[in-house]
Amino acid sequence: MGASRLLAAAAALLTTVALLWTPPPPVAAAPRPAAVHKITYDRYSLSVDGRRVVLWAGEFHYFRLPSPELWRDVLEKIRAAGFNGVSLYFDWAYHSPRPGSYDFTGVRDVDRLLRLTDELGLYVVARPGPYINAETTGGGLPAWLKTVPGRARSSDPNYTRAYREWLAHIDPIIARHQLTRGGSVIAYNAENEYAANTDASYMEDIQRQARAHGIDVPITHNQCCDASWTPTWATGQGAVQIPGVDDYPQAFECREPDVWGTWGDGVTERLSPDAPAYAAEYQAGAIDGNRAGYDKCRELTGPAFMKVYYKSNLIASGATMFGYYMAYGGTNWGRLAQPNDVYTSYDYGAPITENRGLTAKYDEFKRQGYLVTTVEPLARTDPSAAPASDNAAVHTEARANPETGTQFVLVRHADRKTNADESATLTWNTPDGTYRLPVRLKGRDAKILLGGYTMGGQRLAATTSELLTHVTADGRDIAVLYGTEGVAGTTVLRYASRPKVKVLSGSVRASYGNGDLRLDYAHHGLARVEVTGGGRRPLLLLLGTDAEAARFWRSDGVLVRGTSLVRSAALRGGTATLRADLAEAGDVEVFARVRRLRVNGEDVPVHTTPSGTAQGRVAGPKPVRLPALTGWRGTTEAPEAQPGFDDSTWTPADHTTTASPIKPPRPPVLYADDYSFHHGHVWYRGRFTPSGAETSIKLNAITGKGGVYQVWLNGRYLGSAAGGEQKDADAPVNTDPGPGTFPVPAGLLPAGEPAVLSVLVENMGHNDDWTADDVRQKQPRGLVTASVDAAWRIQGTAADDPVRGPLSTGGLYGERHGWHLASTTPTGWAAASPTEPTNPGVRWYRTNVRLNIPDDQDIPVVLRFGGGSGRYRVLIFVNGWNMGEYVSGGVQHDFALPNGILRPRSGNALALAVIAEETATVGPVTLAAAGNVRTPR
Ligand code: GAL
């Protein structure tokens, strides 16, 4: 990159982004012919049409937000945080209820999702697996695959037929949204952490299929977890073009958020000498395996961790491709969860909460993301000499752009884990001169300092503050620098002659000599300095704290301060138009010469500030009271438990063989999947003739972690037992899962008289296939064996649900008869309350609730469970959609009801199926608001 080109680099960046990515206005515009782009890469970075990009992507799972209307909300939030891309898994199991059947409509309309990323100008790394892991049921492998003989994730012919079917459906959708065709897909990820048990022909074939389906962007792979996981797919058969690495340096013990770096230093390895270093998944949250609650996971992976690890990673590895896992986690609604690690919420402690709220982590992402997507020379750097530190406890490390000389200096504690307060003086040789500058790390911290940077029309020689971003408006450069509250900062700018310096607010000392304008200050609040003359165009320098920096938004090249979120901004003919969220009343300031300000379609009176900006005041949201849940009606079900129940239409469970590697001790095979019942509850009824000698019934069922099964004999409840689980992904296969012994009450089994055993088994979801051994994934669900010789019948989900897909509806009597659906009006239900005691078994409650949330407010609603008593669980249905399962004694009490599923301005059918293992009382059930903002209509 030549020097003259660099001079215009920052301004040009915005222009270029606009050329490549101009987002259409929010209102539907006439479709324009899409521009096609060329993607190339070398050892430094990806390039689009010859211009280098640092890919700064956040992971998003559309399948964990069953509300396409809200995809835009989350993607706009991701974009506003400074991400220029998203990493998207595509979940085979979510789209395919059975072999040959695929659905890409409604909440599964991924073409709509990719139209949105095209429109928002977010680069996409498309990750269709076929295996994705992601703590989804089966790791994304459809449950029907459990009945297909042959090892999954290999070139076994049966599996090959199956995954080719998936790729033939998903690849063409992805292909038509590639950047090369005017869309947003910049890369395609083959498989997922494919190591341990590998088959190069399979890796090769996924890529051959992709190419045949029109994929022409670079193909990537995400290697787990360290060098012991081989191969890396960097060379040899099955190699991809850009091999990447997954890294979770904090591990997942959210109960101990202060224990740092359990899994290492978190520096991304370069796997190929010819491709950029790629942090395909970099930890941005955690699963909550030990049920600490996601707030603790957010702490474990909070701003201090992000500063130290993300910044170290950028400078130490020189990686220019990142996928932060997760930007937004979402919800394991229905039966989406893989049971070993997660529950209904997949909040993940991510920067954007499950209820779409923005957190302190979001602010930190913004601080780093704005830097990364502003400073173009970062896309091509080599290791370079670092400034010398006079304190061994303060470590420095640097990279520089070989063309521009721009330096990026990492300053961190030598001991990454320390909380100490350390100061040092750096002797720093920059392209503009040598400077001795003080730095300080107050607690867990790391900084990236810039030197030798042409910042719009300015020359930044060196600074010990960090750059948030800079823009050029009305012939003036505006730059935001920030640092820790109370810590001193120095910024040196170069001028041909002494410029005029005016401190508009705050306390800043200016001195000039040898072409250097040196500004010294302590970071506190927001200081403003105007610099004019000196042979350069004017500069407005804003010097803030971390918190002040987080109040800025850079949207479509416009710098704004204030509001809770700027979704989009436009400047035209002296009018600034913002689409913004407002959590409270406050000032909004636009850093441009503006006569008129429109926020969410309304005029906001503005005045011109001494900084030459336009400032106005916006109102916050109206308080909204959510209605109480009243008018419940209830009924008790489980007729299946009664001996006289007609089960003649149920499927006989009489198979003698199974594709599962875990064989039952004796026939028949009772596994639910073998009878095509893959999700939720299944019922078994076994008829047998007792000898009279039975004193107990012994059963064995496998439900996945956290599941239970319940047993009735001749209509009498015998009790429940914990279903089996695969305790740990690395543990040997559990061959004696979920044993239960149920004593037979005296007189209940007269010899020779036909008896009926009824068993309700919950399926908590399917194991993943993390280690590609096919054994965990094919672990059965349902009854394994019974001590009585019975003729069994089985019944699960009654029919495919074309709207909600395969994972929403299970096989409870009420589910089979549509009691969860808004369209059904069951008769004969009596006035009831979920808080009244429920006997062992299944009891349903329904009510309707009318909401009246103003259409310019976003109020994420949750269903909240108070304390209750006894062992029970509750399936939550909203307008027919299974939005999760409350488990008594569990960690989750609030269940997200996303708008789209919930109708914010009309009636809603709420149904609860209480499954009690003993006489139990459900605690109070209420609606609660998880936020309240004014938002664009
Ligand atoms: C990775 C995997 C992801 C997800 C993550 C943990 O190893 O690729 O799909 O499972 O771990 O949340």
Written description of the protein model:
With 937 residues, the protein is mainly β. The chain has 4 domains: 3-358, Alpha-Beta Barrel (TIM Barrel), CATH 3.20.20.80; 377-563, Beta-galactosidase, domain 2 (beta-galactosidase, domain 2, 3-layer Sandwich); 638-795, Galactose-binding domain-like (Jelly Rolls); 812-934, Galactose-binding domain-like (Jelly Rolls). Helices cover 13% and strands 34% of the residues. The chain contains 12 helices and 56 strands. The longest helix has 19 residues, at 157-175. The chain is elongated. Bound molecules: beta-D-galactopyranose (GAL). The site of beta-D-galactopyranose has 11 residues, from loops. Beta-D-galactopyranose binds at residues 132-135, 192-193, 222, 224, 246, 281, 287.
Which features would summarize this protein structure in a list?
937 residues; mainly beta; beta-galactosidase, domain 2; Jelly Rolls; 8-stranded parallel beta barrel; 8-stranded antiparallel β-sheet; 12 helices; 34% strand; elongated; disordered N terminus; binds beta-D-galactopyranose
What structural category characterises the helix and strand content?
mainly beta
The main pleated sheet reads as: 8 strands, parallel, barrel
The percentage helix is 10-25%
Which architecture of the largest domain does the CATH hierarchy give at level 2? Alpha-Beta Barrel
- N- and C-termini, Cα separation: 44 Å
| CATH class annotation of the largest domain | Alpha Beta
Structurally, how many domains make up the residues?
Answer: 4
Number of strands: 56
Q: Per DSSP, what share of the residues sits in E-state strands of 2 or more residues?
A: 25-35%
Biased composition (Polar residues): 648-660
Domain Beta-galactosidase: 377-552
Family: Belongs to the glycosyl hydrolase 35 family.
Signal peptide: 1-29
